[in-house]
User: Fold DUF5683 domain-containing protein from Cohnella thailandensis.
Amino acid sequence: MDKPSRVAEALLWSIAFPGFGQFRNGKYIKGILLILLEILINVNSRLNLLIIASFHGDIRTSIALTNYEWLMFYPCVYMFGMWDAYKDAGGGTKPFAVFPFAFGAFFATVGVIYSQDFLGAMWLGLCGLAVGLAAGMGLQYLLWSRSAIPSD
Assistant:
């Protein structure tokens, strides 16, 4: 399997479930740890229940169900799992490659923090994630274009 395929496969498995990309890369201890963290945070934050309420358009119930103290960990664990699988599969060799992942985690967490008053944790967290990914990719591109380091 060529490098781009390995990198894409590891990233997609991590998007599906944190830890699966690590299993794909043969990093079993990290994979088990990320899966356990995913389950712990998911259960304690009541993530699945708030997702169901959000998809039904019941934002008030979604907000009432959410345990924000636990949910604020989720974006960082999720994005770290994706970054780690991406990097271990050979995708983290470009300079500033971590920026979209780090900015995505940060802005998704900020979205979760402010979601108690607006849109609910799922929707505002996803909006924050999109803003963070865009900001990270934009900054990454800007730094690539201004440096002598080739971006591939």
